[in-house]
Design a protein that fits this description.
Strand content of chain B: under 5%
Largest sheet of chain B: none
Number of helices of chain A: 9
Radius of gyration of chain B: 17 Å
Distance between the termini of chain B: 43 Å
Largest sheet of chain A: none
Strand content of chain A: under 5%
Oligomer: heterodimer
Structural class of chain A: mainly alpha
Structural class of chain B: mainly alpha
């Protein structure tokens, strides 16, 4: 430990990254992957169950899929509010961030955290700290791709 | 039986997509926001060549629930409305196709933030 600290006695821009990398606690990659697989898979299973339900209710496949994702988004918002989703995220890792529920969590968590700063600059602005980049990049890429397919006849 | 198979496919494919994300997080130390954008753009680009569609047909929610499915929906919507209304459709279809999800996230996010107080993060 002592020698490790000595190595990084002077933290500069160049060695900061490796310093953080070496001193942050290591978690088992295998364990992380298994949790990500299980939780991510389970969230998709819930989505698939919702799709089956909506199809049974007479909706078409595409609308069922869209609605299923929206229900997951709503559920994630509520479980984030109660504090369950973030607890799940601690061991599920990517299993809870990659599904659309993670997108919802990324909107709701900062909204709650910054509500003391007001409805407009607190909740209204901070909601989009992660969702903003996602929507900005997603829409831009989609418009460019669609224009290219229009040009080249898809 | 058909449902059981659909659920199994959704579980395996959805789980595997999350494992790829976990590998990225563990080995590159990218932040969550960047991971989300990478997956979204990856889904969008795969759909540009019509490839993500196959994954959706095979795995259903296993492909549509991960954020890459959001990128897929954006591109699919935009390309479809280009076919309907010409180049201007590129600016219409993407958000139209994803409007329910985004609106739900905003409205529920707002409501939840008004109802719940921030909690101190227990370690």
């Amino acid at each position: 430990m002592k020698s490790q600290q000595k190595d990084y006695a002077q933290i500069s821009k160049s060695n900061y990254k490796s310093y953080v990398f070496e001193t942050s606690p290591k978690s088992s990659h295998w364990k992380n992957m298994i949790w990500a697989f299980l939780i991510g898979g389970l969230i998709c299973v819930v989505g698939q169950l919702l799709i089956a339900l909506f199809i049974k209710l007479g909706l078409d496949k595409e609308m069922s899929s869209t609605l299923a994702s929206s229900v997951l988004v709503a559920l994630a918002a509520i479980t984030t509010g109660i504090g369950i989703y973030d607890r799940l995220g601690r061991f599920a890792g990517a299993g809870s961030t990659i599904p659309i529920t993670g997108f919802s969590n990324a909107i709701v968590a900062p909204a709650i955290e910054f509500r003391s700063e007001g409805l407009i600059y607190g909740i209204g602005a901070k909601m989009f700290t992660v969702a903003g980049p996602v929507i900005v990049n997603g829409v831009s890429v989609a418009v460019i791709i669609a224009l290219l397919t229009a040009l080249f006849g898809g | 039986m058909e449902l059981a198979l659909a659920l199994l496919k959704a579980f395996v494919v959805g789980g595997l997509i999350c494992v790829i994300g976990q590998l990225l997080i563990d080995y590159t130390h990218l932040t969550n926001g960047k991971i989300l954008v990478i997956f979204l753009v990856a889904g969008a680009i795969l759909q540009a060549f019509g490839l993500y569609e196959y994954l959706i047909k095979f795995a259903g929610a296993g492909a549509s629930v991960p954020i890459s499915g959001f990128g897929y929906a954006l591109v699919k919507g935009a390309v479809e409305s280009v076919k309907e209304m010409g180049p201007i459709g590129a600016f219409v279809g993407g958000l139209k196709a994803t409007a329910i999800g985004i609106s739900t996230a905003i409205v529920f996010g707002y409501a939840v933030a008004l109802i719940f107080k921030p909690r101190t993060k227990e370690m």
